[in-house]
Amino acid sequence: MSQIKKVLIANRGEIALRIIRACRDMGIRTVAIYSTADRDAMHVQLADESVCIGPAAARDSYLNESAILTAALLTNADAIHPGYGFLSERADFARKVEQHGMIWVGPSPDMIEKMGDKVNAKKTAIECGLPVVPGSDGAIESLEHALDTAEKIGYPIMLKAAAGGGGRGMRPVESPDDLAEAYSITKNEAKSAFGDDTMYMEKLLTHPRHIEFQVLGDKHGNVVIFGERDCSLQRRNQKVMEECPAAILSQKQRDDMIEICKNAAKKMGYTNAGTFEFMFQDGKFYFLEMNTRLQVEHPVTEMVFGVDLVREQIRVAAGEKLGYTQSNVIPNGHAIEFRINAENPDNFMPNPGKITLYAPSGGMGVRVDSAVYTGYTIPPTYDSMIAKLIVHAQNRPACIMRAGRALDEFVIEGVKTTIPLQQKLLKNKDVKQLNFDNKWLESFLKKN
């Protein structure tokens, strides 16, 4: 590990703390960056060094590329780890890191760029043998083109912004009568939100599940797939609860997709961590997108496969070989992750403020990834996630039992949280029996 002796973490909150811990386990020094709103944050206190990079607004701090690069150079960092969100999928920033002689802990800038554009990503997926949703052959150039394509695909269809992500820039269309208005609105929204109004079209799947496969590749052509996660319990395309493995799959479906994903990643020359995301309906997989970074839900994979994915990211970035093959990647048990947010569980309104008591659950098979503490004030400026509760057990029923106990134990006072919702989900018959899809949670919330 001689190449990397100090890592600057271009992020905040629990993921910054997660990276600090992995670095400490490897004997690597860390540099935290922080905004004025995060002066008392735990990641600032636990890093070896820290640098204030700007005021509270993310655009002036955690998205301020010049300030972050300057902090890295001033502290003599060898590498930058972006975590997730913020600059993690900015190809231009990754290039600047490398141009300044530092190591980017992530996929290559070219790969981030290639897979970040949804149209190019789909073309690449097809070239690499991944199953895709029937859709437009590239970008939709005009309304006439959209109407022709929709007729060939068959309604309902989904209009998507090529530069979209995180559930934004998408609009379902049920019939030809609705297409003109939807096309105009989505195009304008894409231009406003992403600065790019390029659109494409896909067949709308009516009852899909969201299943994703964890990729890890080194710079020597070796690739492994650390199984899959079921992330189907979503609200407004934002994941609420994630599981590993996807219990709905047969072993053959799982094995076939692991082989397909491994071959695709090798063919595209993918390095570092990433995730192939799929829609799964009626026994078939359809490529959705690729996340060229670490995922929020990576801990469920770590718990089942006994691997530190952040450590592996750093090893790979330093040029080391994986040191194991697909046959060495053996799952053990089941894991579920709950995203605990500072939100009203009834209407999901953010509820920032001071945490007057923080007492996380513990015990066998329970992990909590968080960066808050009693007395910490959650700023209104950033994401509302307080903690990730990850529970592991020998099988899914046992995991659900343990998760119920862990959620009951978890005490957070001073702000409202989503724990009551997650407790309801665990007790629900459909959740227990795997009788849900991507739209189930929205329907459940309307009834409860």
Task: Please tell me about this protein's structure.
This protein is of the alpha+beta class and 448 residues long. It folds into three domains: 6-105, Rossmann fold, CATH 3.40.50; 134-203, 2-Layer Sandwich (Dna Ligase, domain 1), CATH 3.30.1490; 209-447, ATP-grasp fold, B domain (D-amino Acid Aminotransferase, Chain A, domain 1). 35% of the residues lie in helices and 27% in strands. The chain has helices spanning 13-26, 42-46, 65-74, 91-99, 109-116, 118-127, 143-153, 176-194, 251-268, 298-305, 309-317, 396-409, 419-427, 429-432, 440-447; strands at residues 6-9, 29-35, 49-54, 79-81, 103-104, 157-165, 168-173, 199-203, 209-217, 223-235, 238-244, 272-281, 284-291, 334-341, 353-354, 357-359, 366-370, 377-378, 385-393, 411-413. It has an eight-stranded antiparallel sheet, sandwiched between helices. Strands 3-2-1-4-5 form a five-stranded parallel sheet. A three-stranded antiparallel sheet has the order 7-6-8. Helix 1 (13-26) links the parallel strand 1 and strand 2. The N and C termini lie far apart (52 Å). The model has no long low-confidence stretch (mean pLDDT 95).
The overall number of domains is: 3
Total number of β-strand segments?
Answer: 20
Spans of at least 5 consecutive residues with low confidence:
none
Task: Please work out how many helical segments DSSP would assign.
Answer: 15
Mean pLDDT across all amino acids: 95
Shape: globular
Global structural class: alpha+beta
Question: Given this structure, which CATH class of the largest domain is correct?
Answer: Alpha Beta
